Amino acid sequence: MARGHRLFGAAEAARIVGGSLVGNAEASIVSVAADSRQVEEGSLFAALPGERADGHDFIAQALATGASCVLARSERRESLMAGLAGAKGALEAGKASIVFVDEVLAALQALAREHRSRHPGLYRVGITGSSGKTTTKECAAAILGRSRRLVLNEGNLNSDIGLSISMFSIRSEHEIGVFEMGMNRKGEMGELAAVYEPDLALITNVGTAHIGILGSRQAIAEEKKMIFSRFTGEQLALVREDEEQKALLVEGLKGKLREFGARSTSGFRGARDLGLAGFDVDWEGLRFRFPLAGRHNLMNALAAMAIAEAVGTAPEDVAEGLASVRPLFGRSEVIRGEFTVIRDCYNSNPDSAMAAIALCDSIECAGRRVYVLGSMLELGVISEAEHRRIGAAAAASRADALFFFGDETRPGYEEAVAAGYAGRLCFETSFDALRGSVASFLRAGDLLLLKASRGMELERLSDALLPPSAGKTGHDQKREGSDAP
Hints:
The protein is α/β, with parallel strands linked by helices. It folds into 3 domains: 8-102, Udp-n-acetylmuramoylalanyl-d-glutamate--2,6- Diaminopimelate Ligase, Chain: A, domain 1, CATH 3.40.1390.10; 119-323, Mur-like, catalytic domain (UDP-N-acetylmuramoyl-L-alanine:D-glutamate ligase, 3-Layer(aba) Sandwich), CATH 3.40.1190.10; 333-470, Mur ligase, C-terminal domain (Protein-Tyrosine Phosphatase, Chain A, Alpha-Beta Complex), CATH 3.90.190. It has 17 helices and 22 strands.
Protein backbone atom coordinates (compact mmCIF):
# COMPACT_ATOMS: atom_id res chain seq x y z
CA MET A 1 0.00 0.00 0.00
CA ALA A 2 1.21 3.51 -0.83
CA ARG A 3 2.44 5.51 2.09
CA GLY A 4 1.83 9.21 2.74
CA HIS A 5 -1.06 11.64 2.83
CA ARG A 6 -3.87 10.38 0.61
CA LEU A 7 -4.95 13.00 -1.91
CA PHE A 8 -7.51 11.11 -3.99
CA GLY A 9 -8.62 7.68 -5.01
CA ALA A 10 -8.35 6.88 -8.72
CA ALA A 11 -12.14 6.73 -9.24
CA GLU A 12 -12.53 9.98 -7.36
CA ALA A 13 -9.88 11.64 -9.53
CA ALA A 14 -11.60 10.37 -12.69
CA ARG A 15 -14.90 11.84 -11.52
CA ILE A 16 -13.33 15.24 -10.74
CA VAL A 17 -11.71 15.55 -14.16
CA GLY A 18 -14.51 13.91 -16.10
CA GLY A 19 -12.26 11.16 -17.38
CA SER A 20 -12.59 7.50 -18.28
CA LEU A 21 -10.86 5.08 -15.90
CA VAL A 22 -9.10 1.84 -16.79
CA GLY A 23 -7.64 -0.35 -14.07
CA ASN A 24 -7.89 -0.24 -10.30
CA ALA A 25 -10.59 2.21 -9.22
CA GLU A 26 -9.41 1.96 -5.61
CA ALA A 27 -5.80 2.94 -6.31
CA SER A 28 -4.67 5.55 -3.79
CA ILE A 29 -2.91 8.76 -4.91
CA VAL A 30 -0.48 10.29 -2.40
CA SER A 31 1.58 12.62 -4.64
CA VAL A 32 1.55 14.14 -8.13
CA ALA A 33 4.35 14.37 -10.69
CA ALA A 34 4.69 15.59 -14.25
CA ASP A 35 8.22 14.20 -14.63
CA SER A 36 8.55 10.42 -14.63
CA ARG A 37 11.89 10.76 -12.81
CA GLN A 38 10.02 12.22 -9.84
CA VAL A 39 7.45 9.44 -9.63
CA GLU A 40 7.39 7.50 -6.37
CA GLU A 41 5.18 4.84 -4.83
CA GLY A 42 1.58 6.07 -5.03
CA SER A 43 2.16 8.97 -7.42
CA LEU A 44 -0.25 10.22 -10.01
CA PHE A 45 1.77 10.76 -13.19
CA ALA A 46 0.46 13.48 -15.54
CA ALA A 47 1.62 12.52 -19.04
CA LEU A 48 2.11 16.01 -20.42
CA PRO A 49 3.67 16.85 -23.78
CA GLY A 50 6.91 18.83 -23.48
CA GLU A 51 9.31 20.67 -25.74
CA ARG A 52 11.68 17.72 -25.94
CA ALA A 53 9.61 14.72 -24.89
CA ASP A 54 6.03 13.50 -24.54
CA GLY A 55 5.02 12.15 -21.14
CA HIS A 56 3.00 9.40 -22.83
CA ASP A 57 6.28 7.80 -23.85
CA PHE A 58 7.20 7.38 -20.17
CA ILE A 59 3.97 5.91 -18.80
CA ALA A 60 5.35 2.37 -18.65
CA GLN A 61 8.38 3.67 -16.75
CA ALA A 62 6.16 5.60 -14.33
CA LEU A 63 4.02 2.53 -13.63
CA ALA A 64 7.11 0.40 -13.10
CA THR A 65 8.45 2.99 -10.63
CA GLY A 66 5.27 2.83 -8.57
CA ALA A 67 2.75 5.25 -10.05
CA SER A 68 -0.73 4.33 -8.87
CA CYS A 69 -2.53 6.43 -11.46
CA VAL A 70 -1.79 8.09 -14.80
CA LEU A 71 -3.49 10.98 -16.58
CA ALA A 72 -3.35 10.41 -20.34
CA ARG A 73 -5.03 11.79 -23.44
CA SER A 74 -8.07 9.95 -24.72
CA GLU A 75 -6.84 10.18 -28.31
CA ARG A 76 -3.83 8.07 -27.33
CA ARG A 77 -5.90 5.38 -25.62
CA GLU A 78 -5.83 2.72 -28.32
CA SER A 79 -2.12 2.94 -29.09
CA LEU A 80 -1.21 3.26 -25.43
CA MET A 81 -3.19 0.23 -24.31
CA ALA A 82 -1.78 -1.80 -27.19
CA GLY A 83 1.72 -0.82 -26.14
CA LEU A 84 1.09 -1.85 -22.55
CA ALA A 85 -0.80 -5.05 -23.37
CA GLY A 86 2.26 -7.28 -23.29
CA ALA A 87 3.69 -5.82 -20.09
CA LYS A 88 3.44 -7.60 -16.76
CA GLY A 89 3.22 -4.36 -14.84
CA ALA A 90 1.11 -2.70 -12.20
CA LEU A 91 -1.77 -1.94 -14.55
CA GLU A 92 -2.22 -5.56 -15.59
CA ALA A 93 -1.80 -6.70 -11.98
CA GLY A 94 -4.71 -4.52 -10.94
CA LYS A 95 -2.60 -2.23 -8.76
CA ALA A 96 -2.74 0.95 -10.84
CA SER A 97 -5.07 2.80 -13.17
CA ILE A 98 -5.10 5.19 -16.13
CA VAL A 99 -7.57 8.06 -16.40
CA PHE A 100 -8.13 9.14 -20.00
CA VAL A 101 -9.02 12.82 -20.53
CA ASP A 102 -9.31 15.30 -23.39
CA GLU A 103 -6.47 17.51 -22.11
CA VAL A 104 -3.99 16.35 -19.48
CA LEU A 105 -3.01 19.87 -18.34
CA ALA A 106 -6.65 20.89 -17.84
CA ALA A 107 -7.23 17.71 -15.83
CA LEU A 108 -4.16 18.34 -13.70
CA GLN A 109 -5.37 21.88 -13.01
CA ALA A 110 -8.83 20.60 -12.09
CA LEU A 111 -7.34 18.22 -9.53
CA ALA A 112 -5.10 20.97 -8.14
CA ARG A 113 -8.06 23.34 -7.81
CA GLU A 114 -10.12 20.63 -6.08
CA HIS A 115 -7.36 19.84 -3.60
CA ARG A 116 -6.81 23.51 -2.81
CA SER A 117 -10.56 24.10 -2.36
CA ARG A 118 -10.65 21.40 0.32
CA HIS A 119 -8.60 23.73 2.54
CA PRO A 120 -10.89 26.77 2.85
CA GLY A 121 -9.09 28.02 5.96
CA LEU A 122 -5.90 28.75 4.00
CA TYR A 123 -5.34 32.49 3.41
CA ARG A 124 -3.88 32.67 -0.08
CA VAL A 125 -1.26 35.24 -1.17
CA GLY A 126 -0.43 35.32 -4.88
CA ILE A 127 2.52 37.23 -6.37
CA THR A 128 3.19 37.99 -10.02
CA GLY A 129 5.09 40.58 -12.04
CA SER A 130 7.70 40.92 -14.75
CA SER A 131 10.58 40.71 -12.27
CA GLY A 132 11.08 40.28 -8.54
CA LYS A 133 8.40 37.59 -8.05
CA THR A 134 10.62 34.97 -6.49
CA THR A 135 12.53 37.38 -4.24
CA THR A 136 9.30 39.01 -3.08
CA LYS A 137 7.84 35.57 -2.35
CA GLU A 138 10.91 34.55 -0.35
CA CYS A 139 10.83 37.84 1.59
CA ALA A 140 7.13 37.48 2.37
CA ALA A 141 7.58 33.84 3.38
CA ALA A 142 10.49 34.72 5.69
CA ILE A 143 8.21 37.20 7.46
CA LEU A 144 4.93 35.30 7.58
CA GLY A 145 6.49 31.95 8.42
CA ARG A 146 7.69 33.27 11.75
CA SER A 147 4.22 33.26 13.28
CA ARG A 148 2.04 31.18 10.93
CA ARG A 149 2.15 27.68 9.49
CA LEU A 150 3.17 28.45 5.93
CA VAL A 151 3.14 26.73 2.54
CA LEU A 152 4.74 28.07 -0.64
CA ASN A 153 5.90 26.90 -4.04
CA GLU A 154 9.55 25.92 -4.01
CA GLY A 155 12.00 27.74 -6.27
CA ASN A 156 10.14 29.19 -9.21
CA LEU A 157 7.53 26.45 -9.76
CA ASN A 158 5.09 29.13 -10.85
CA SER A 159 3.79 28.02 -14.25
CA ASP A 160 0.61 26.30 -15.40
CA ILE A 161 2.26 23.00 -14.49
CA GLY A 162 4.48 24.07 -11.58
CA LEU A 163 1.81 25.98 -9.67
CA SER A 164 -0.67 23.17 -10.12
CA ILE A 165 1.71 20.56 -8.73
CA SER A 166 2.61 22.92 -5.88
CA MET A 167 -1.04 22.99 -4.81
CA PHE A 168 -0.77 19.37 -3.68
CA SER A 169 1.67 20.40 -0.95
CA ILE A 170 -1.17 22.17 0.91
CA ARG A 171 -2.14 20.40 4.14
CA SER A 172 -4.81 21.02 6.75
CA GLU A 173 -2.32 22.50 9.22
CA HIS A 174 -1.31 25.32 6.86
CA GLU A 175 -2.69 28.75 7.73
CA ILE A 176 -1.28 30.89 4.93
CA GLY A 177 0.03 30.22 1.43
CA VAL A 178 2.52 32.37 -0.49
CA PHE A 179 2.70 31.33 -4.14
CA GLU A 180 4.32 33.13 -7.04
CA MET A 181 2.49 32.97 -10.35
CA GLY A 182 4.32 33.32 -13.67
CA MET A 183 3.32 33.13 -17.31
CA ASN A 184 4.85 32.27 -20.67
CA ARG A 185 1.78 32.52 -22.88
CA LYS A 186 -1.41 34.47 -23.26
CA GLY A 187 -4.22 33.18 -21.08
CA GLU A 188 -1.95 31.42 -18.60
CA MET A 189 -2.47 33.87 -15.72
CA GLY A 190 -6.22 33.38 -15.87
CA GLU A 191 -5.69 29.63 -15.56
CA LEU A 192 -3.41 30.08 -12.56
CA ALA A 193 -5.90 32.40 -10.87
CA ALA A 194 -8.65 29.83 -11.38
CA VAL A 195 -6.51 27.14 -9.73
CA TYR A 196 -5.32 29.24 -6.77
CA GLU A 197 -7.93 32.02 -6.33
CA PRO A 198 -5.77 34.36 -4.22
CA ASP A 199 -7.23 36.35 -1.34
CA LEU A 200 -4.40 38.86 -1.71
CA ALA A 201 -2.73 39.38 -5.06
CA LEU A 202 0.36 41.53 -5.63
CA ILE A 203 1.88 42.66 -8.94
CA THR A 204 5.53 43.61 -8.46
CA ASN A 205 5.79 45.52 -11.75
CA VAL A 206 4.94 45.44 -15.44
CA GLY A 207 8.16 45.36 -17.44
CA THR A 208 9.39 43.92 -20.70
CA ALA A 209 9.90 40.28 -19.69
CA HIS A 210 7.96 38.10 -22.18
CA ILE A 211 7.24 41.07 -24.42
CA GLY A 212 8.31 38.88 -27.33
CA ILE A 213 5.38 36.60 -26.50
CA LEU A 214 2.67 39.18 -25.82
CA GLY A 215 3.88 42.02 -28.04
CA SER A 216 3.60 45.12 -25.84
CA ARG A 217 3.82 46.31 -22.26
CA GLN A 218 0.08 47.01 -22.34
CA ALA A 219 -0.58 43.41 -23.38
CA ILE A 220 1.64 42.23 -20.53
CA ALA A 221 -0.38 44.36 -18.09
CA GLU A 222 -3.62 42.90 -19.45
CA GLU A 223 -2.26 39.41 -18.81
CA LYS A 224 -0.81 40.19 -15.37
CA LYS A 225 -4.05 41.77 -14.13
CA MET A 226 -5.76 38.42 -14.63
CA ILE A 227 -4.37 37.52 -11.22
CA PHE A 228 -7.35 39.59 -9.98
CA SER A 229 -9.83 37.78 -12.23
CA ARG A 230 -11.31 35.60 -9.46
CA PHE A 231 -11.89 38.51 -7.12
CA THR A 232 -15.47 38.89 -5.92
CA GLY A 233 -15.18 42.05 -3.83
CA GLU A 234 -13.49 41.17 -0.54
CA GLN A 235 -10.03 40.35 -1.86
CA LEU A 236 -7.07 42.76 -1.79
CA ALA A 237 -4.92 43.92 -4.71
CA LEU A 238 -1.45 45.39 -4.10
CA VAL A 239 0.13 47.45 -6.90
CA ARG A 240 3.39 49.42 -6.99
CA GLU A 241 2.87 53.13 -6.33
CA ASP A 242 4.80 54.32 -9.40
CA GLU A 243 3.65 51.59 -11.81
CA GLU A 244 3.15 53.13 -15.28
CA GLN A 245 0.40 50.63 -16.10
CA LYS A 246 -1.41 51.10 -12.78
CA ALA A 247 -4.60 52.54 -14.26
CA LEU A 248 -4.94 49.57 -16.60
CA LEU A 249 -4.14 47.06 -13.87
CA VAL A 250 -6.89 48.27 -11.53
CA GLU A 251 -9.52 49.06 -14.16
CA GLY A 252 -12.64 47.06 -13.34
CA LEU A 253 -11.10 45.66 -10.14
CA LYS A 254 -13.59 43.78 -7.95
CA GLY A 255 -11.87 44.17 -4.63
CA LYS A 256 -9.87 46.52 -2.43
CA LEU A 257 -6.75 48.30 -3.65
CA ARG A 258 -3.58 49.34 -1.84
CA GLU A 259 -0.29 50.60 -3.18
CA PHE A 260 3.21 49.73 -2.02
CA GLY A 261 6.52 51.52 -2.28
CA ALA A 262 8.75 53.94 -0.41
CA ARG A 263 5.87 56.42 0.01
CA SER A 264 2.98 53.97 0.34
CA THR A 265 4.10 51.00 2.43
CA SER A 266 2.80 51.69 5.92
CA GLY A 267 5.46 51.64 8.64
CA PHE A 268 8.43 52.24 6.34
CA ARG A 269 10.52 55.17 7.54
CA GLY A 270 13.44 54.96 5.14
CA ALA A 271 16.54 52.94 4.32
CA ARG A 272 20.27 53.69 4.13
CA ASP A 273 22.07 52.06 1.21
CA LEU A 274 25.00 49.93 2.41
CA GLY A 275 26.15 48.87 -1.05
CA LEU A 276 26.76 45.16 -1.34
CA ALA A 277 25.79 44.73 2.32
CA GLY A 278 22.18 45.66 1.53
CA PHE A 279 20.22 48.29 3.44
CA ASP A 280 19.81 49.60 6.95
CA VAL A 281 15.99 49.75 7.19
CA ASP A 282 13.76 51.70 9.56
CA TRP A 283 10.39 49.94 9.91
CA GLU A 284 7.85 50.94 12.56
CA GLY A 285 10.68 52.31 14.71
CA LEU A 286 12.71 49.11 14.41
CA ARG A 287 16.09 49.17 12.65
CA PHE A 288 17.46 46.10 10.92
CA ARG A 289 19.69 45.15 8.02
CA PHE A 290 18.08 43.78 4.90
CA PRO A 291 20.99 41.92 3.27
CA LEU A 292 20.04 42.01 -0.43
CA ALA A 293 21.78 44.73 -2.46
CA GLY A 294 20.15 47.02 -5.00
CA ARG A 295 17.18 49.38 -5.05
CA HIS A 296 15.14 46.77 -6.93
CA ASN A 297 15.57 44.35 -4.02
CA LEU A 298 14.57 47.05 -1.54
CA MET A 299 11.36 47.42 -3.57
CA ASN A 300 10.82 43.66 -3.26
CA ALA A 301 11.21 44.03 0.50
CA LEU A 302 8.69 46.90 0.52
CA ALA A 303 6.24 44.67 -1.35
CA ALA A 304 6.70 41.95 1.28
CA MET A 305 6.22 44.54 4.05
CA ALA A 306 2.94 45.59 2.44
CA ILE A 307 1.76 41.97 2.40
CA ALA A 308 2.77 41.57 6.04
CA GLU A 309 0.96 44.74 7.07
CA ALA A 310 -2.17 43.68 5.19
CA VAL A 311 -2.42 40.39 7.11
CA GLY A 312 -1.66 41.92 10.49
CA THR A 313 1.90 40.80 11.10
CA ALA A 314 3.83 42.05 14.14
CA PRO A 315 6.60 44.58 13.32
CA GLU A 316 9.15 42.36 15.06
CA ASP A 317 8.35 39.50 12.69
CA VAL A 318 8.81 41.82 9.70
CA ALA A 319 12.20 42.99 10.92
CA GLU A 320 13.47 39.55 11.90
CA GLY A 321 12.09 37.92 8.77
CA LEU A 322 13.65 40.36 6.32
CA ALA A 323 16.95 40.32 8.19
CA SER A 324 17.07 36.53 7.68
CA VAL A 325 16.61 36.60 3.88
CA ARG A 326 19.50 35.28 1.78
CA PRO A 327 19.95 35.53 -1.99
CA LEU A 328 18.84 32.60 -4.10
CA PHE A 329 21.05 31.08 -6.75
CA GLY A 330 21.60 33.47 -9.64
CA ARG A 331 19.62 36.30 -8.07
CA SER A 332 21.81 39.15 -6.78
CA GLU A 333 24.31 36.71 -5.26
CA VAL A 334 27.46 38.37 -3.95
CA ILE A 335 30.51 36.10 -3.83
CA ARG A 336 33.66 37.51 -2.29
CA GLY A 337 37.19 36.33 -2.92
CA GLU A 338 40.21 37.56 -4.83
CA PHE A 339 37.64 39.53 -6.81
CA THR A 340 33.96 40.15 -6.04
CA VAL A 341 31.31 38.51 -8.22
CA ILE A 342 27.71 39.69 -8.50
CA ARG A 343 25.99 36.67 -10.01
CA ASP A 344 22.60 37.78 -11.34
CA CYS A 345 22.20 35.34 -14.19
CA TYR A 346 19.08 33.37 -13.33
CA ASN A 347 17.08 35.68 -15.55
CA SER A 348 17.48 38.88 -17.53
CA ASN A 349 15.28 41.40 -19.28
CA PRO A 350 15.84 45.09 -20.09
CA ASP A 351 14.51 46.28 -16.73
CA SER A 352 16.59 43.91 -14.60
CA ALA A 353 19.69 44.45 -16.75
CA MET A 354 19.43 48.21 -16.23
CA ALA A 355 18.97 47.63 -12.48
CA ALA A 356 22.08 45.42 -12.36
CA ILE A 357 24.19 48.04 -14.15
CA ALA A 358 22.90 50.76 -11.83
CA LEU A 359 23.73 48.63 -8.78
CA CYS A 360 27.29 47.99 -9.90
CA ASP A 361 27.77 51.65 -10.82
CA SER A 362 26.72 52.64 -7.28
CA ILE A 363 29.27 50.41 -5.54
CA GLU A 364 32.69 51.69 -4.63
CA CYS A 365 35.36 49.08 -5.26
CA ALA A 366 39.12 48.94 -4.93
CA GLY A 367 39.62 47.51 -8.42
CA ARG A 368 37.91 47.81 -11.77
CA ARG A 369 34.31 47.19 -12.80
CA VAL A 370 33.91 44.33 -15.28
CA TYR A 371 30.42 43.77 -16.70
CA VAL A 372 29.60 40.56 -18.58
CA LEU A 373 26.24 41.05 -20.31
CA GLY A 374 24.72 37.96 -21.90
CA SER A 375 21.73 37.63 -24.20
CA MET A 376 18.27 38.63 -23.01
CA LEU A 377 15.95 36.01 -24.48
CA GLU A 378 12.23 36.00 -25.32
CA LEU A 379 12.20 39.64 -26.48
CA GLY A 380 10.90 38.87 -29.96
CA VAL A 381 10.81 41.75 -32.44
CA ILE A 382 12.15 44.28 -29.92
CA SER A 383 15.27 42.22 -29.16
CA GLU A 384 17.64 44.29 -31.28
CA ALA A 385 16.34 47.63 -29.99
CA GLU A 386 16.48 46.54 -26.35
CA HIS A 387 19.97 45.08 -26.64
CA ARG A 388 21.06 48.35 -28.24
CA ARG A 389 19.54 50.25 -25.32
CA ILE A 390 21.44 48.09 -22.83
CA GLY A 391 24.62 48.52 -24.87
CA ALA A 392 24.26 52.30 -24.76
CA ALA A 393 23.60 52.24 -21.00
CA ALA A 394 26.61 49.99 -20.43
CA ALA A 395 28.82 52.28 -22.53
CA ALA A 396 27.73 55.24 -20.38
CA SER A 397 28.26 53.30 -17.13
CA ARG A 398 31.28 53.22 -14.83
CA ALA A 399 32.44 49.89 -16.25
CA ASP A 400 36.13 49.54 -17.07
CA ALA A 401 35.40 46.55 -19.31
CA LEU A 402 32.33 45.28 -21.15
CA PHE A 403 32.02 41.71 -22.39
CA PHE A 404 28.94 40.96 -24.53
CA PHE A 405 28.06 37.27 -24.82
CA GLY A 406 25.60 35.64 -27.24
CA ASP A 407 24.34 36.34 -30.74
CA GLU A 408 21.54 38.56 -29.45
CA THR A 409 24.02 40.95 -27.80
CA ARG A 410 25.78 41.95 -31.03
CA PRO A 411 23.61 45.11 -31.40
CA GLY A 412 24.53 46.08 -27.83
CA TYR A 413 28.21 45.65 -28.62
CA GLU A 414 27.80 47.73 -31.79
CA GLU A 415 26.06 50.45 -29.79
CA ALA A 416 28.94 50.55 -27.30
CA VAL A 417 31.42 50.86 -30.19
CA ALA A 418 29.37 53.66 -31.77
CA ALA A 419 29.25 55.47 -28.42
CA GLY A 420 33.03 55.54 -28.35
CA TYR A 421 33.35 53.40 -25.24
CA ALA A 422 36.97 53.71 -24.13
CA GLY A 423 37.32 50.65 -21.90
CA ARG A 424 38.04 47.03 -22.77
CA LEU A 425 35.30 45.94 -25.15
CA CYS A 426 34.65 42.40 -26.32
CA PHE A 427 31.92 40.43 -28.11
CA GLU A 428 31.89 36.63 -27.94
CA THR A 429 29.52 33.85 -28.99
CA SER A 430 31.72 31.00 -27.76
CA PHE A 431 31.75 30.34 -24.02
CA ASP A 432 35.33 29.10 -24.13
CA ALA A 433 36.42 32.32 -25.83
CA LEU A 434 34.49 34.38 -23.27
CA ARG A 435 36.07 32.50 -20.39
CA GLY A 436 39.54 33.07 -21.77
CA SER A 437 38.96 36.77 -22.45
CA VAL A 438 37.52 37.48 -19.01
CA ALA A 439 40.10 35.38 -17.16
CA SER A 440 42.99 37.15 -18.87
CA PHE A 441 41.57 40.57 -17.97
CA LEU A 442 40.50 40.06 -14.34
CA ARG A 443 42.81 40.90 -11.48
CA ALA A 444 42.59 41.08 -7.71
CA GLY A 445 40.12 43.61 -6.34
CA ASP A 446 37.91 43.76 -9.45
CA LEU A 447 34.11 43.72 -9.36
CA LEU A 448 32.61 41.25 -11.83
CA LEU A 449 28.94 41.40 -12.88
CA LEU A 450 27.37 38.36 -14.56
CA LYS A 451 23.98 39.24 -16.07
CA ALA A 452 22.12 37.13 -18.65
CA SER A 453 19.01 35.09 -19.29
CA ARG A 454 18.96 31.62 -17.77
CA GLY A 455 19.41 29.95 -21.14
CA MET A 456 22.93 31.41 -21.44
CA GLU A 457 24.08 29.46 -18.34
CA LEU A 458 26.43 32.28 -17.41
CA GLU A 459 27.03 30.73 -13.98
CA ARG A 460 29.53 28.55 -15.86
CA LEU A 461 31.83 31.57 -15.89
CA SER A 462 31.85 31.94 -12.13
CA ASP A 463 32.38 28.18 -11.81
CA ALA A 464 35.41 28.47 -14.09
CA LEU A 465 36.90 31.55 -12.43
CA LEU A 466 36.26 30.90 -8.75
CA PRO A 467 38.51 28.60 -6.73
CA PRO A 468 37.01 25.29 -5.51
CA SER A 469 36.71 26.68 -1.97
CA ALA A 470 34.25 29.29 -3.26
CA GLY A 471 31.77 26.55 -4.21
CA LYS A 472 30.17 25.68 -7.55
CA THR A 473 26.89 26.86 -9.04
CA GLY A 474 25.91 28.93 -6.07
CA HIS A 475 26.34 26.49 -3.19
CA ASP A 476 28.37 26.78 0.01
CA GLN A 477 30.25 29.98 -0.83
CA LYS A 478 30.45 32.86 1.62
CA ARG A 479 27.90 35.48 0.61
CA GLU A 480 27.43 39.06 1.66
CA GLY A 481 24.85 39.20 4.43
CA SER A 482 25.70 35.87 6.00
CA ASP A 483 26.54 35.56 9.67
CA ALA A 484 30.09 34.55 8.82
CA PRO A 485 32.70 37.28 9.35
